[in-house]
Amino acid sequence: MMKFIKNVKMLNEQSELIETTVTIVDGRIEALGAKQPDAAEIIDGKGHLLSPGFVDLHVHLREPGFEHKETIETGTASAAKGGFTTICAMPNTKPVPDSIVNLKYINSLIEKSAKVRVLPYGSLTVAQSGDERTNLAALKEHGAVAFSDDGVGIQLASTMYEQMQDAAKLDMVVVAHCEDNSLIYNGVMHEGKRNKELGLPGIPSICESVQIARDVLLAESAGARYHVCHVSSKESVRAVRDAKAAGIRVTAEVCPHHLLLEEMDIPSDDANWKMNPPLRAADDKDSLHAALLDGTIDCIATDHAPHTEEEKCCGMVGAPFGIVGFETAFPLLYTHFVETGKWTLKQLIDWMAIKPAQIFNLPYGKIEVGAAADLVLIDLSKEQTVNPESFESKGRNTPFTGWKAKGWPVLTMVEGRIVYEEAK
Ligand SMILES: NC(=O)N[C@@H](CC(=O)O)C(=O)O
Ligand SMILES: [Zn+2]
Ligand SMILES: [Zn+2]
């Protein structure tokens, strides 16, 4: 099957937008900038931006076990609508991918209903209990993309250390949700100014940063590749920056909401503003921006975390942590940071496609001859208001309702197959 995309603009090596065409044969990019072949299905790109499909190292699809929040089908439809073509699914499902049997089961569900490429994590401990270590070699052999216990921090240093040693032997990345349980203090938002105004218990920044500081030293000793999830605080940024300077093999991600929002933006005791780690102070947000720009933070990940309206209805204290992210990530970041001149379009695409793929050594996230035709067409001038009712995700839990943004994906393709197309 041959497909031909005409009339699109793509960034070249010099970061200029140039007009091009794409010829796709058997799901791969056969040629860029070639003339229209005769025997092809033609897609008119209407002058839109052609970007590599985004790669998200941190997502929650909820299936198996929590299908009332999301399924692989709805989660990947949401990803496709957001322009994501490869997503890495965190292991806090039921069952947890902690054994060959469970990972095979999850892979069979992915095979049945995923609209985009889903690469599952294997867990670091059995049932994510933090206790018994999983067999990383077996999980790798059955397709685990990396290892994580996201959702909870690994409390015991020895557990983390021993899994890092095993992962290092396999040349696999250990991906950490850093949270010291003894420092949560039943908090539901950042321990700062706004939580006191709202009378809500706070989570101090050290809850995250002390575990990152511990882990980078463990990674150094184990010789492991170590990736930090959802960095939120300036102390965490410093720990990662110092570790990189010391030559430790650490990478880090930041979520759109931590770049766009801060604690003082939280309007009320509304659980659509509750996520882990929480929105922190203005200077924390500033440090995350500086860290992206200086390379301390390597990429952007959504941490798409759908929950039901019932779970999120009634204030922060009883609600689960997490917000959805796929369908708003690119437009919000493009509008707030590229259109305003803070970032270049190239930087944003690097952080959402190229860098995340590199961290896991994935052959995706780039547009070149021979690569999989994982592509997204984006209408940079289309302006639209964020409306959760229109989400493909089952989750409506976003703090961005009503935000205006430009830069909406209009067509997403995985290996040359159209997996999302804007309604005409
Ligand atoms: N980020 C969140 O607030 N929640 C995530 C878990 C996690 O990423 O730690 C979830 O699974 O709901
Ligand atoms: Zn997490
Ligand atoms: Zn997560």
UniProtKB/TrEMBL annotation:
Organism per entry: Ureibacillus yapensis
Domain of life where this protein originates: Bacteria
Residues that coordinate or bind Zn(2+) 1: 58, 60, 150, 303
Keyword Nucleotide-binding applies: no
Gene3D superfamilies cross-referenced by the UniProt entry: Metal-dependent hydrolases (3.20.20.140), Urease, subunit C, domain 1 (2.30.40.10)
Gene: pyrC
Pathway listed: Pyrimidine metabolism; UMP biosynthesis via de novo pathway; (S)-dihydroorotate from bicarbonate: step 3/3
Any one GO cellular component localisation term in the record: cytoplasm
Transmembrane as UniProt keyword: no
Molecular function terms from GO: allantoinase activity; dihydroorotase activity; zinc ion binding
Active-site positions on this chain: 303
UniProt cofactor(s): Zn(2+)
EC category name: hydrolase
Note on cofactor: Binds 2 Zn(2+) ions per subunit.
Binding site for Zn(2+) 2: 150, 177, 230
Protein name: Dihydroorotase
